[in-house]
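[stage:ingest] chain + small molecule (fe (ii) ion)
[stage:ingest] validated
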Amino acid sequence: MTVSNTIPFHLQGNYAPVEDEISSGELEIRGSIPSELNGRYFRNGANPITGESAHWFLGDGMIHGVRLREGKAEWYRNRWVKTPFYEDPAKPVIDLENLDFSSENSKANTHVVYHAGRILCLEEGHVPWEISDELETLGPCSFDGRLDGSFTAHPKICPTTGEMLAFGYSWQPPYLTFLGISEVGELVQRRDIDIPAPVMMHDFNITAKRVVFMDLPVVFDLDVALAGGMPFSFQRDNGARLGVMNRDNENGDVQWSEIDPCYVFHPLNSYDIGDRVIVDVARYPSMWEAGSGQFTTTAELWRWDIDTVSGDVSETQLDDRPIEFGRVADSRVGLQYKFGYAVSLDLSEKTAKSNGGRLLKYNLEEGQSEIWEFGDGNDPGEFVFVERPNAEAEDDGWLLGYVYNRIEDRSALVVLDASSPGGDPLAEVLLPRRVPFGFHGSWIWDDR
Ligand SMILES: [Fe+2]
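[stage:predict] done
[stage:export] tokens:
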């Protein structure tokens, strides 16, 4: 595959979009799919309808789905989320005349999450879009008209209460709003939160008692917006803060602590230890300096240990390998945990032609890690941990993700035994096409 220096990386190789929607029936399998895996693996990503977009993050959302049942792979489908851009691809992605965060003009391209009967396609700038379990677009979701602003692509579903906690951010005050969706899917909490500047807040953290916001200095920049592309730049002088809010505090009081300026797209997990909060993240030393929109640094695993009494934060690097797309068991979100999974991935331009090649399993209790290698020419994306029904151990389950094979120019859904790092896949579902490198996905059980 030839690589051009003039075409941006996100339009080349397996970052390039696919041109159409297809459906494929019973799929060839190498190995065997665990018989308990009855459900669907859906993964979202940016796949510009016109074939072009100004930035990797600005393409139209496309879901690639595989349906597994009783050891078979019954179908693969890919479908665009049918937002207004599907009918009118010429519509401006960022409309500077009308910066409307409550808009339905979402690219819906970042994550796909199941909660309380809804499958939501999420993009942090606008309201979610709902799809069916057959990947048909149902329409925008405003939670019965109660959501009038943006909604993060990384809500957190509390494994204890079943609530979906979220936030929205805006480039007009209030810059940040906390949102709580009840276990039955109603938007029942909203707290406006004061931060100094409009920043790009991609993700956040929950624990059993608290929420931790990351106010990091990737700041809305009108000059960059006017030039096209992602309208943000790294502004070190803005400083960086972690904001701890108690989940049961109706007033939304937040305790802010200064940290070294940096950027984080994705935490791994967070949890309480008494008056302390542990936050593990994939930390970049900076992001989009001078509004470049380029990935020129790598993220590594760091731990922030917040003392909620003194406000002090200790910042410790836990590993020096580049990682992204960290995941933990859904049942451990916000709780003390032992295992995290992340792709060893360097998004910097030097290696953007490939997506990297390894999956790491961190043992946070013992400070160790183990590796799955996918072999030359095989590039994994995010892997999702799926807990075995009635699991007794935290890592009793499977890891599911798409792996692109550069030689054959096609992808497979790979199923790994999460408790046996380094082992061969339990199953590879051979897909009829390549799945472009994308963002985040979920396993959605039939029995839910
Ligand atoms: Fe993300």
